[in-house]
Amino acid sequence: METKKWTTAAQFNTYEEAGAYRKELIEDHALVKVKRGAKTYRVKIWNPLPEKEEKQRKKGKKKNANKKVRN
Q1: How far is the C-alpha of 5 from the C-alpha of 31, rounded, in Å?
Q2: Is the pTM for the entire model greater than 0.85?
Q3: Residue 34: strand pairing partners
Q4: How far apart are CA 68 and CA 31, in angstroms?
Q5: In this predicted model, what pLDDT tens digit does every residue of 8-39 receive, in sequence order?
Q6: d(CA 33, CA 23)
Q7: Rounded-to-integer distance, Cα 64 and Cα 47, Å
Q8: How many CB atoms lie within 10 A of CB 47?
Q9: What is the SS3 assignment for 44?
Q10: C-alpha 59: how far from its chain's center?
Q11: What distance lies between CA 27 and its chain's CA centroid?
C-alpha cells in the first residue's frame, strides 16, 4: 500500500485564514487539512491517483505450442 503524497496549497500566519481557505478547497479535492508549523499554518491537499486500466492479454496458442518436446 502506498502512502498519500500531500501537496501544500498555501501558507498562512493564522489558523482562521487557513481554515477559511480550507473550506474553499474542500469541494474541489478529496482531502484537505491544515497543518501547524513553527510559525505558519499550511493548507495541504490530496487527490487519489487515477486507476490504471489493466492490459488485456492475448488468448490463443502459445508461441512454442507446435514444437516437439524432447525427452
Answers
A1: 11
A2: no
A3: 43
A4: 59
A5: 999 999 999 999 999 999 999 989 999 999 99
A6: 10
A7: 45
A8: 13
A9: strand
A10: 33
A11: 17
